[in-house]
Amino acid sequence: MSSLLVKATGGDGDLPLHEALSGIAGSISLVSWIVLLLPQLIENYKNGRADALSMAFLTAWFVGDLTNLIGAIWGGLLPTVIAIAVYFCFADCVLLAQTIYYNRLTSHSKEGRGHHHRHNHRRRSSVGAHNDPTQPLLANRRRRSAHHPRDSISVLLTEDRGRYSVAVKNVLSILGVIFAGVAGWCFAWWAGAWKVSNGEGNAPGKDMPLGAEILGYLSALLYLSARIPQIIRNHQKKSCEGLSLLFFLLSLLGNVTYGAGILLHCTEKAYILDNLPWLLGSLGTMMEDIIIFAQFHIYSNAAGVIEDEENHAHTNGHH
Fold this sequence. Notes:
Blueprint lengths: L1 H7 L8 H19 L2 H10 L7 H20 L4 H49 L6 H57 L19 H28 L7 H21 L3 H6 L1 H42 L2
């Protein structure tokens, strides 16, 4: 692959370095978008629930992809662009369906637990007068006192290993996406499927029907505003539990490389102005992703402090 890069950007003048870097950035961005939703789908499946996701976030995301698809068809864009837009809508539908399914399961489970709790409460009330509650409570307390310090250390060690494992997986996943993007571009250039654009007529909104252009702007606006409900939900819950950090890392990577691909291709004022809505949309989405990263950090640390305080209180209470 390195030999292909050297050959592509060699001294023959066929492919300027900035064009190669622009193509590579665009390819990495494309791979990021293709695999974007997979981490969250897996996270929901592992947890058996999806209540961490804001339905407003998912809905706005889906409508953004849908308007993007309609605009691509209306504007007569390349078949590959339309095919990718169709894939995005399909992936959105899968995530929406999974979220709705798990939310219904969670709702039914809560109703069942509520009924079971009321039934057990009535049973305990009816037999409570015949039992001495002191003995089992004292026995349980002694058992917890004997095992609690060791259990606390085990839990902390397990959590540290778990965090390290997740961090390694996320880093390897990002590196894998970057490698796939670079390899994909190299193969496309080698096969002749990737051509250098002459800079004319390549702006997203140029020579497009007005309706398709409006849909493109609407799609960018929906992408930009979609994360706001999720940020609010995280703030209200004071937690990001159930969200996949890799999902937002891939989103950030996709937006960074998307913007870089545009800027590396051409920095002329007219070209930048033509692409300004897409650049601003990517920049705004990146800022929102950074806010969510901050929420991951703040709320995970807060949860750790609360857990440490509870463990300390239990330990003091048992001595």
